[in-house]
Design a protein that fits this description.
Layout: H1 3-12, E1 22-23, E2 27-28, E3 40-42, H2 43-46, E4 55-57, H3 67-70, H4 72-79, E5 84-86, H5 97-116, E6 121-122, H6 130-137, E7 145-149, H7 157-173, E8 178-182, E9 195-198
Parallel strand pairs: 3-4, 4-5, 5-6, 7-8, 8-9
Antiparallel strand pairs: 1-2
Length: 210
Amino acid sequence: MSKNSERNIRSLHLDWCKPSDMVECKLPIIEPCNYMPPRLISFRESQESADYEAGVHFFVDDVYFEKVWSNPTQWIKHLSKFSCVITPDFSVYCDAIIPSMWNIYRSRMFGRKLQDCGLKVIPTVPFGTYELTHFALLGLPQNSLVCVSTVGARKRHNSRMAFQAGLDIISKFLQTSGVLVYGELDSFDYHNLKTYQYEQSILYKPEEAC
């Protein structure tokens, strides 16, 4: 393999995961995790916090955590101090399928790397189109926790519709042990899924989506 090829593989972090650990050679497989963190703090908060019993989430604007992908070694060491990590919530967009699939890949690959480093990892399920949500379920474990966020999904009609459609898909195709909900439960139909609500921090609230 040429040096250029090796460099390209490293930039995609394909060296983090063997093909046998990927479902349909698309997304890395995440192992089950049923650890319930007592509370969740954002990645931004974690950089100033010694609350190591908390789990770390990435429900903030992408610009604040892009560095975990570009400089993973430093941030994996940082995240290992905390009780668990929710996979990065890189943004998905209903009108940009391919870039959104890339962001789902990045979230999953980083989560798999964290697990391989010994961290407890709970996968995020992003909600976009039917196709994107189905793609995001590939390689997720059965009888395990997943995490979603209602932040940004409650005020706009299209966002509410996408969020509800995502819950419908989870309830039909993924046998979870429970859903961690970051933000208000609101009036969504969770289809008798076990839900565990975590309050949104007043610090570092994400900007309002367009």
